[in-house]
């Protein structure tokens, strides 16, 4: 029988390729640097080709080493999914679960649903990772995360998703603003204002513009914020207007600020909140139950937020 690489050897290679540093890779693998170096040397001897270029100061993968590392990621992910499948068969809602969440969802949804999750799944150990969508998907595909809470639509590739809520958009401005005279705000009118949005990289920016049909409309963008908290402070200081998701408004993000909230007229534009996971994951039953509980926690339909 042809000798095959071990998962341990492949894990060592991926760690070095990711970090280009033996010490950091050894620390990530929880082994000594000598053990990691020996494991990679064994892999190179087995394959009969160098996988890393080493000098006294640097290490970098050869073209073959980089390709093998990419294939190794898929093998390691599949092996982890096999383990997850076995554990899930015993109790789908027990053990650790690494969940990603984007910054425009986490601070507003997690505090709201966590009591229900603890009550429903007392044996589930939930570890949260907050980051932007693209990086969360990279971690999900790489096996670092089990699932993620994202806002859709977003291109995801070979990922499964279950919608758990619709998060409607609302117009926010100062009380003296001309658009406060009406009970609702029209997207075309919003497009003509100094619209404050999150910076590029935050999917909420694109969702708000697309849902409100503003992505192709002429508009003024005077500020790009790094968080929704920053945006509302800018609005409160008279720099413009903004669009906020309903979950942020209901969480009290405008509390203490002299600002007005208006629903958008028409078809009440929204973003979709969904739980997503790898299609190959062995914990699909876990994610379905988790999604059902999240959906139930958010099922109460709120009236348009009142002015703080």
From TrEMBL:
GO terms for molecular function: DNA binding; DNA-binding transcription factor activity. One of its GO terms (cellular component) is protein-DNA complex. Keywords: DNA-binding, Transcription, Transcription regulation. InterPro entries: LysR_HTH_N (IPR000847), LysR_subst-bd (IPR005119), WH-like_DNA-bd_sf (IPR036388), WH_DNA-bd_sf (IPR036390). It comes from the Bacteria. Pfam families: HTH_1, LysR_substrate. Residues 5-62 form the HTH lysR-type domain. Belongs to the LysR transcriptional regulatory family. This is Hydrogen peroxide-inducible genes activator.
């Amino acid at each position: 029988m042809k000798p095959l690489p071990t998962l341990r050897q492949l894990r060592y290679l991926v760690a070095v390729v990711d970090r280009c540093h033996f010490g950091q890779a050894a620390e990530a693998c929880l082994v000594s640097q000598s053990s990691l170096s020996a494991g990679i040397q064994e892999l190179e001897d087995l394959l009969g080709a160098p996988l890393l270029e080493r000098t006294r100061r640097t290490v970098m993968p050869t073209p073959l080493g980089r390709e093998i590392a990419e294939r190794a990621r898929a093998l390691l992910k599949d092996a982890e999914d096999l383990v997850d499948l076995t554990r899930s068969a015993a109790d789908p809602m027990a053990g650790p679960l690494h969940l990603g969440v984007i910054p425009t969802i986490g601070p507003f949804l997690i505090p709201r649903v966590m009591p229900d999750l603890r009550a429903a799944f007392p044996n589930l150990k939930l570890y949260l990772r907050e980051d932007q969508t693209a990086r969360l998907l990279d971690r999900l595909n790489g096996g670092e995360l089990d699932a993620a809470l994202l806002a859709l639509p977003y291109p995801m590739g070979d990922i499964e998703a279950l919608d758990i809520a619709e998060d409607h958009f609302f117009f926010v401005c100062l009380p003296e603003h001309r658009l406060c005279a009406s009970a609702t705000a029209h997207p075309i009118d919003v497009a003509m204002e100094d619209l404050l949005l999150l910076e590029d990289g935050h999917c909420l920016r694109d969702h708000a513009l697309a849902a409100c049909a503003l992505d192709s409309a002429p508009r003024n963008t005077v500020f790009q914020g790094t968080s929704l908290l920053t945006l509302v402070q800018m609005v409160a200081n008279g720099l413009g207007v903004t669009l906020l998701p309903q979950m942020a408004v209901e969480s009290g993000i405008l509390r203490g600020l002299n600002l007005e909230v208006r629903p958008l007229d028409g078809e009440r534009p929204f973003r979709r909140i969904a739980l997503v996971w790898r299609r190959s994951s062995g914990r699909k039953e876990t994610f379905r139950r988790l999604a059902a509980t999240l959906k139930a926690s958010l099922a109460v339909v709120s009236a348009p937020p009142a002015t703080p």
